[in-house]
Automatic annotation (TrEMBL):
Species of provenance: Microlunatus endophyticus
Name used for this protein in its record: FAD-linked oxidoreductase
Keywords, sorted A to Z: FAD, Flavoprotein, Oxidoreductase
GO MF terms held by the record: D-arabinono-1,4-lactone oxidase activity; FAD binding; L-gulono-1,4-lactone dehydrogenase activity
Organism lineage: Bacteria, Bacillati, Actinomycetota, Actinomycetes, Propionibacteriales
InterPro entries, per the entry: ALO_C (IPR007173), FAD-bd_PCMH (IPR016166), FAD-bd_PCMH-like_sf (IPR036318), FAD-bd_PCMH_sub1 (IPR016167), FAD-bd_PCMH_sub2 (IPR016169), FAD-linked_Oxase-like_C (IPR016164), FAD_lactone_oxidase-like (IPR010031), Oxid_FAD_bind_N (IPR006094)
FAD-binding PCMH-type domain sequence ranges: 9-179
Length: 432
């Protein structure tokens, strides 16, 4: 039995295998193609959707990990596709390199993160898949191919956000940047003013985001400024980090969520307290320690990318929805941005994007009505759903959102003609 981190999906694969060599995977894929069976590579199981669910062979990628090579001059690092993001700083830091941008956490595998279009924040920076210069992929016929600017280049914009539909990624080559530090400023500010100035705030900062606790009028803003690696560090003291990030953000928060789940009426009062005890600090640390945090309170999440200009209206509409329906929402709404990119199924394809993510505690009941209503608002604002987070869209609804949707399907036909990597979720979002 396998389940996702958010406890949103269960699977009982026919077999679970953890190969360590490409040749083992090639044999497995060929055998599955002959038997008319399926294979599903899986990373850390941090997607909320059924994108990684299989009744066929589940292929765990933990043993495809570690640093395979580094080209220091070109700042390229090739890593096993199952390498956890948390391991990357240590592996490439030795060479004075870092990943250009990261999301909220670092538990995911590189392959899982890029395959669903995982992103962080920063209007001049793309999602993690835009950092990928090349991959090695095993196709649905068991062929091992390299895809880069010089080998099979026509496939690069499809495979970088490939939804696990095109093959098994064996290695990923990242285009890195010189190691850097981040100066972080976290402040509570009036939500209305933050929304009014949202676009300017995004443009003025390297990395800007905010959290809004429903039932409050406060935004907890986070502004990160990139500095060279030799800028002095002023990290959070160990005790402070423990209190803020472990006790308050996880342990106390878990207890509060559990109480609210049984007594939703007290949610507004607790949220008003939460926005006072979190988010007022400044520190400077190495980049990955600022970008990522630990999240141990389990939740369910829906996130949409909208044109960045639409963020303030879309968020105000979410606020109005919560008021009109008298909902009790304990988890904060997270708002971020990313640069436009050219990856075919990237949620930021061709447009400067803002991201709005809504969450519910994993034990909350009746979460679907909230997610459905927020989804409707996001669709009214030309939204595109995150591929790893909850949404209800089908291929017919997704096609008009992506200029290269049918090109992606043509690549799928070419790389996985027997649908070895299919599952019901991909049937829904891509078609059979
Ligand atoms: C607590 C939490 C925080 C998160 N924060 C963010 C965030 O800040 N930003 C954001 O954008 N998203 C975020 N996410 C979503 C998450 O980054 C994505 O769902 C991501 O796909 C998870 O990576 P994974 O390794 O768990 O992949 P999985 O969920 O295991 O797999 C995802 C997909 O990748 C495919 N895949 C995995 N390995 C391979 C491989 N080797 N070859 C081919 N396909 C493969 C799978 O088949 C599946 O289709 C968060 C999720 C959680 C639970």
């Amino acid at each position: 039995m396998w389940r996702t981190w958010g406890r949103t999906e269960l699977a009982t694969p026919e077999r679970i295998l953890a190969p360590s060599h490409a040749s083992e995977i090639q044999d497995l894929v060929r055998e599955a193609a002959e038997r008319g069976s399926t294979v599903k590579p899986i990373g850390a199981g941090h997607s909320f959707t059924a994108i990684g669910v299989t009744e066929g062979v589940q292929l765990r990628t933990d043993r495809l990990h570690g640093l395979m090579s580094v080209d220091r001059d070109r700042r390229l690092a090739t890593l096993g596709a199952g390498t956890r993001l948390a391991e990357v700083p240590r592996l490439i830091g030795y060479y004075g390199l870092a990943m250009e941008n990261l999301g909220d956490i670092d538990r995911q595998t590189i392959a899982g993160a890029i395959s669903t279009g995982t992103h962080g924040t920063g209007s001049r920076f793309g999602g993690l898949a835009t950092q990928v210069a090349a991959v090695q992929l095993i196709t649905g016929t068991g062929e091992l191919i390299t895809i880069s600017a010089t080998e099979n280049p026509e496939l690069l914009d499809a495979v970088r956000v490939g939804l696990g539909a095109l093959g098994v990624l064996v290695s990923v080559t990242l285009r890195c940047v010189p190691a850097f530090t981040l100066a972080a400023t976290e402040r509570p500010e009036p939500l209305a003013a933050v929304l009014d100035a949202f676009e300017q705030r995004c443009d003025a900062a390297d990395h800007f985001e905010f959290y809004w606790f429903p039932h409050t009028t406060t935004a907890l803003t986070k502004t990160n400024t990139r500095l060279p690696s030799d800028a002095g560090l002023a990290p959070l003291k160990r005790g402070q980090r423990f209190i803020d990030d472990t006790l308050v953000s996880n342990e106390l928060y878990r207890a509060l969520c559990a109480v609210q789940s049984g007594m939703p009426a007290i949610t507004p009062m607790i949220n008003r307290t939460a926005d006072k005890i979190t988010g007022n600090r400044s520190f400077t640390d190495v980049s990955h320690r600022v970008f990522t945090t630990r999240r141990t309170v389990r939740f369910k999440e829906l996130e949409y990318a909208v044109p960045r200009t639409a963020v303030p209206d879309a968020l105000r509409a979410v606020g109005q929805l919560i008021k009109d329906r008298d909902l009790r929402i304990s988890f904060p709404v997270e708002v971020r941005s990313a640069a436009a990119d050219q990856l075919w199924l990237s949620t930021a394809h061709d447009r400067l994007s803002g991201y709005i993510a809504v969450h519910r505690y994993h034990r909350d009941r009746d979460t679907q009505a909230y997610f459905d209503a927020v989804e409707e608002i996001m669709l009214d604002h030309d939204g595109r759903p995150h591929w790893g987070k909850l949404h209800t869209l089908t291929a017919d609804q997704l096609r008009p959102k992506y200029r290269h949707f049918d090109d992606f399907l043509a690549v799928r036909d070419r790389l996985d003609p027997h649908r070895v990597f299919a599952n019901p979720h991909l049937d829904r979002v891509l078609g059979p």
